[in-house]
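Weekly structure sync, notes
Attendees: PL (lead), two postdocs, one rotation student
Agenda item 3: pending single-chain targets
PL asked that the sequence for the first pending target be pasted directly into the notes so everyone works from the same version. It is reproduced below exactly as submitted, 125 residues in total.
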Amino acid sequence: MKISEASKASGVSARSLRYYEDEGLIVPGRSGNGYRDYCTSTIDRVLVIRSLLESGLPVRLIREVLPHLTDAPDGEPGTVCAEFLHEVRDYRDRLAARIAELSAQRSALDAFLLEARPPKSPATA
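Predicted structure, written out during the meeting:
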């Protein structure tokens, strides 16, 4: 299918599809005239990429672990390899540490704002 059809089928803009290709996340086929040709398996991969991006994973991590996503040998869909799960847990833990740091900074600013008094204006002095 052409890029416009792939865009509709995946819910991802044509621009995003080109970006995924530029980043090495997908490799669409090419027709005789050079146009991109998206197959069903590429659309399925785009849906996985989109889901991972919506989960907050960076493209760098998705690029590293996407080849390791696999179907379970018994055919159970949604199973992923242990390496990917480890990478996602590490990313989640780093994100949690950043959130804790930002929360502490926000608390410090809240405390400052509670204690700070604006200067008196000349009219009220």
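Discussion points:
- The chain has one domain: 3-116.
- Strands lie at 29-30, 36-37.
Action: rotation student to compare against the earlier draft before next sync.
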